[in-house]
Design brief:
By secondary structure, this protein is of the alpha/beta class. The protein has helices at residues 3-16, 63-76, 84-88, 91-103, 115-129, 143-152, 164-173, 197-207, 229-232, 261-270, 272-275, 282-297, 299-318, 338-352, 381-397, and strands at residues 25-28, 35-39, 45-50, 108-112, 134-138, 155-159, 180-185, 187-188, 193-194, 210-214, 241-245, 255-259, 331-334, 354-355, 358-359, 370-373. The strands form 4 sheets. Strands 4-12-11-10-7-5-6 form a 7-stranded mixed β-sheet, sandwiched between helices. Strands 1-2-3-14 form a 4-stranded mixed β-sheet. It has a 3-stranded antiparallel β-sheet with strand order 13-16-15. Helix 2 runs antiparallel to helix 12 (282-297) and helix 5 runs parallel beside helix 6. The termini are far apart. The structure holds pyridoxal-5'-phosphate. Residues 114-116, 119, 142, 144, 185, 189, 214, 216-217, 245, 247, 255 line the site of pyridoxal-5'-phosphate (PLP).
Length: 404
């Protein structure tokens, strides 16, 4: 067997489909978000404006967050030195979990090394704790939830995205006594739409199901205190498990679940993805506590964030560009073809200093390839005007489809 050839063929196949990914090597400029320096392979550099970061509020360079991180690092060192069970737990980990539980109005919370790990570990563990559990999952759920569902080994049913009639049809068809878990997201981050959370909770009540909500793209961004869409809609107390990340609006890294004391304790005792891996470094935990407190207390950030997103949507619409309908801070522009999507983003980066990653299969279905733009409160009118001019140029040069 020529192993190398198998690897090379796999890469060539991706290249042939026009979705081979090349990383841009960035140097973020703290204090100058969203500006960054791009390092080229030949050693030269150029300036770019980042339009695709999930550091939605620029918290990754908030001065207070940086100060908390440095202070904790100088005082406690960097690595945590172990898993949570063995030497890794600091008083800061406990404080952060308390803060997260409080953010969602829940009894308890549990930290993981990432949002991905939290979904994988929590969904698989919770479902395995229930004999013959059936997971009912939205068709567009994130890969990390799908991983958790697979690893649970439980039966699963998929309902059409946000289709409540279909969800009810499935719930109705399941054995009444069987434990059920409805898994869904609040903000779906590729289209920017929101799930009908109240209706899902009503159906969960009607059919005796638990609810598992991924709030990754909404924590810090929605609700008066940044508790997410479940806070905004007033349904947080009806959700069994709220899952979130520290890596998006909070600007750092790490994931978590929040819920009842017993549920969180059960996952803590059983989830391999929690037990068998080194926990987050104390400085990062200190930074996260500072970031969450700041974001919670500063509703102005959320207001500015929404204003900037709306402004960009308006500008793109006025320019005749194909903005996809989005009721959130996510601004997707349809291209509809993998090769041209990549061409467009290469051109934007190389010739206009505009950094947007192409979103291709398998992140979105083939034929719906797109640019996904994420304006922050720090993207001012000047960079927005430059962006729109660049996009208009590129759309014309590549003869891409305009708005219908
Ligand atoms: C980004 C993302 C995750 C994973 O979070 P990380 O902290 O980046 O691992 C989970 N769910 C959804 C919907 C996401 O978009």
């Amino acid at each position: 067997m020529n192993y190398e050839k198998v690897f090379q063929d796999a890469v060539d196949k991706v290249k042939g489909e026009g979705r081979y990914r090349v990383f841009a090597h960035l140097e973020r400029q703290a204090g100058n978000f969203p500006h960054a320096t791009r390092h080229h392979p030949d050693g030269t550099t150029s300036d770019v404006v980042v339009w695709c970061s999930n550091d939605y509020l620029g918290q990754g360079q908030n001065q207070d967050v940086l100060a908390a991180l440095s202070e904790a690092g100088a005082r406690m060192g960097v690595g945590s030195g172990g898993t949570r069970n063995i030497a890794g737990t600091t008083y800061l980990h406990a404080e952060l979990e308390k803060e997260l539980a409080d953010l969602h109005g829940k009894e308890a919370a549990l930290l993981f090394t990432s949002g991905y790990v939290s979904n994988d570990a929590a969904i698989s563990t919770i479902a395995q704790l229930m004999p013959d559990c059936i997971i009912v999952s939205d068709a567009l759920n994130h890969a990390s939830m799908i991983a958790g569902i697979r690893h649970s080994g439980c039966a699963k049913k998929i309902y059409r995205h946000n289709d409540m009639a279909h969800l009810e049809e499935i719930l109705k068809s399941l054995p009444k006594a069987a434990p059920k878990l409805i898994a869904f997201e609040s903000v779906y981050s590729m289209d920017g739409d929101i799930s009908p959370m109240k209706q899902i909770c009503d159906l969960a009540d009607k059919y005796g199901a638990m609810t598992y909500l991924d709030e990754v793209h909404a924590v810090g961004l929605y609700g008066e205190n940044g508790g997410g869409i479940s806070e905004r809609e007033g349904v947080a107390d009806r959700i069994t498990v709220i899952e979130g990340t520290l890596a998006k609006a909070f600007g750092l890294m790490g994931g978590y679940i929040a819920g009842s004391e017993a549920m969180v304790d059960a996952v803590r005792c059983a989830a391999p993805g929690f037990i068998f891996t080194t926990t987050l470094p104390p400085p990062l935990v200190a930074g996260a506590i500072t970031s969450i407190r700041h974001v919670r207390a500063t509703n102005e950030l959320r207001v500015q964030h929404q204003e900037r997103a709306q402004r960009l949507k308006d500008l793109l619409t006025a320019a005749g560009l194909p903005v996809m309908p989005s009721v959130t801070h996510i601004v997707p522009l349809m291209v509809g073809d993998a090769v041209r999507c990549k061409q467009a983003t290469d051109m934007l980066l190389d010739e206009y200093g505009v950094y947007i990653q192409p979103i291709n299969y398998p992140t979105v279905p083939v034929g719906t390839e797109r640019l996904r733009i994420t304006p922050s409160p720090f993207h001012d009118d000047d960079v927005m005007d430059e962006l729109v001019t660049a996009l208009k140029d590129v759309w014309m040069r590549l003869q891409l489809q305009n708005a219908a």
